[in-house]
């Protein structure tokens, strides 16, 4: 027969034929850091804040973050408009790199890199994409 005493770290004792030991619930008694979990932190975004590129050129936005477990990345438009890539559109891109092969003026705006790993809070960085175009080519 065993009697279990809980929440006493490392306690295991025999007394008159009875064994007393501990049961520790690691989910509720340990903090994220004690479990080795670290919230994400964005350490680098390329370019840093504003990127100006000519219409029709290639754009590459890259985000790097740390955290434990390693973070997952999402790029999305700050205005929540779809991101157009070639012939399709998506509300977000699940990658640390957002690459637009032929940028157009309607893709101008603020883009967000969001790094998350299940440990709150997620990390977020914004950068502004500006597209230079010839005003003579404006649609009428």
Automatic annotation (TrEMBL):
GO cellular component: neuron projection; plasma membrane
InterPro entries, alphabetized: Ig-like_dom, Ig-like_dom_sf, Ig-like_fold, Ig_sub, Ig_sub2, Neural/epithelial_adhesion
Protein name: Lachesin
Record domain Ig-like: where: 40-132
Record keywords, A-Z: Cell membrane, Disulfide bond, Glycoprotein, Immunoglobulin domain, Membrane, Repeat, Signal
Gene3D superfamilies noted in UniProt: Immunoglobulins
Subcellular location: Cell membrane
Source species of the chain: Nephila pilipes (Giant wood spider)
Main location: membrane
Designated gene of the protein: LAC_4
């Amino acid at each position: 027969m065993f009697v279990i005493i809980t929440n006493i770290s490392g306690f295991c004792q025999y007394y008159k034929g009875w064994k007393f030991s501990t049961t520790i619930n690691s989910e509720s008694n340990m903090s994220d850091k004690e479990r080795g979990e670290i919230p994400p932190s964005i350490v680098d975004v390329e370019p840093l804040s504003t990127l100006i590129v000519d219409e029709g050129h290639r754009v590459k936005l890259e985000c790097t973050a740390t955290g434990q477990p390693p973070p997952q990345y999402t790029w999305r438009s700050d205005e929540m408009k779809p991101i157009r890539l070639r012939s399709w559109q998506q509300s977000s891109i699940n990658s640390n790199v957002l690459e637009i092969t032929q940028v157009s003026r309607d893709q101008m705006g603020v883009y967000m890199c969001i790094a998350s790993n299940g440990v709150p809070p997620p990390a977020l960085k914004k950068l502004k994409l500006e597209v230079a175009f010839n005003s003579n080519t404006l649609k009428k």
